[in-house]
């Protein structure tokens, strides 16, 4: 952009005054107008202390051996020194691996995470798909919190059960889900319960309970909060819309009660 402006001003005030006005170096302008010819590529000379082909082959064979295939060059280097052997420096091992088909990578055998499918759940009637989650509520004193468990019916967005506790555990979640299932009279193979991958959601008490009741489990993909949108949206309304009815009721219960509160409801028409 500056070079183009200098070229436009040069016929009127000259190149050097235009460069001074724009703060550009005249040498840069002249070099871009008449670029120097490219220098011929010269092969890099081989250092006198470079490894021979046989030495490089020995280093590569040791790095790719069965015992060292999953070890970093630093580990291989230290292991060879413990055995009284020195094939090459640690940096040279990296260069040998890089020259041989780009083998500089994570050499440890690590678990490959499977591809998680996005959950696709359809609720065509009440008590067909539930979504539940846990969130923190600020307590009356600094650094004190309450844990709010809420189970929502996806079809009606109705809270079929909720409880406020002093901690987050799997047995508490199990008791809440079991009570909500009894109140709503859920039959086997009728319900799908969706949640994220939190500690309580994937705990054994909850998993065993759902398996015993014939309820299908569904979980969000790892680190994907948008896979549980109904619970996340309900918590946002609760926390950032303090004038809402649910926010006022739950906040008052958390602030005034010294004991835990568990609430479930029988019909969507009643208030919790």
Name its key features.
disordered C terminus; Nucleotidyltransferase, domain 5; alpha/beta; 3 domains
Q: Could you walk me through the main structural features you see in this protein, from its secondary elements to its overall organization?
A:
With 272 residues, this protein is an alpha/beta fold. It folds into three domains: 2-33; 53-99, no CATH class; 129-264, Ribonuclease H-like superfamily/Ribonuclease H (Nucleotidyltransferase, domain 5). The protein has helices at 2-13, 15-22, 26-33, 53-63, 73-82, 90-99, 170-184, 204-213, 229-240, 245-256, and strands at 129-138, 145-153, 158-165, 192-195, 216-219, 261-264. It has a six-stranded mixed β-sheet, with helices on both faces. Strand 2 (145-153) and strand 3 form a beta hairpin.
Instruction: Decide which structural class fits the backbone.
Output: alpha/beta
CATH architecture of the largest domain: 2-Layer Sandwich
- Average pLDDT over all residues: 85
Main beta sheet: strand number and arrangement?
Answer: 6 strands, mixed
Strands of the biggest beta sheet: in what spatial order? 5-4-1-2-3-6
Number of strands: 6
- Encode the helix/strand succession as letters: HHHHHHEEEHEHEHHE
Per the CATH scheme, the topology name of the largest domain is: Nucleotidyltransferase, domain 5
Count of the separate structural domains: 3
Described by the principal axes of the CA atoms, the overall outline is flat
CATH class of the largest domain: Alpha Beta
Write the layout of secondary structure elements.
Elements: H1 2-13, H2 15-22, H3 26-33, H4 53-63, H5 73-82, H6 90-99, E1 129-138, E2 145-153, E3 158-165, H7 170-184, E4 192-195, H8 204-213, E5 216-219, H9 229-240, H10 245-256, E6 261-264
Parallel strand pairs: 1-4, 4-5
Antiparallel strand pairs: 1-2, 2-3, 3-6
